[in-house]
Input
Amino acid sequence: MARWGCGAGCMYIAIIDSITGDAYFPGISFQDGLGRTETCHHASGFSLESELFIFQGEPLQGNTTGKPGLYFYRWHDGKFSLLHYEPRCPAFDRDFNVGQ
Output
């Protein structure tokens, strides 16, 4: 997975197949968001051994609720599917690892 920022509190992602070199741009990006009582800083986590991708923040596009929070996606067959959304932002100030 490649992740890059826009320089102003947002992040874009791409999935790169390590065998074929094919790159997938799933259309999911996210930014810092404002919750009811806190700032929801953007952060994300994944593991190479898992199909799970987690991010927190406010989505800019993609298959999301459009609200700040914690998002759980499954990467399968070349696309992301939203598994779960929680309308809260844990205290992650940086990227986190899936499986911690």
Summary: The chain has one domain: 2-86. The chain has a mean pLDDT of 76.
